[in-house]
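Tokenised fold entry reproduced for everyone:
>
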Amino acid sequence: MAEEQAAGAAQDEQVQQQFTMQRIYAKDVSFESPASPDIFRQNWQPNVNVDLNTRSSKADETGNHEVILTITVTAKMEDKSAFLVEVQQAGIFFAAGIEEDSLKQILATVAPNILFPYAREAIDALVVKGGFPPLMLAPVNFDALYQQAMAQQAAQGGGEVAEGPTH
């Protein structure tokens, strides 16, 4: 009888864990093409740099968290900046019944995985509207970036990571 109650209690704990997406939105969008129109006369072979960053914060006391995925793409031709595009794709995620360490990992990995396709599409659309060839960003392994950030934190002597993975 005690085993059945323990099994039932464990099952109730699992049922109570929740993580759901409430809303996805563009928090900030920026596109610059400082070298146009001259840049369009050159053979298009840019050096493209992509920077990723995630951060999360408690949105309210009911279990909602805001996660912001920031992607900055810089394309340069020799010493000229062809374009710079930055998108802050954000989302509100509800979490309940999840331990703090697990929640930090979910907010740094699962939420950015949900947000990334939206940010990738926004970046591609901005680049094309700016007169440049499509730019389809490669998929990102946010789990690996999180593990790398945790290993780097441990190597630096601990402390709490205020932000998620940065690439």
About this structure: The longest helix spans residues 100-129. The chain has a mean pLDDT of 88. The two ends are 52 Å apart (CA to CA).
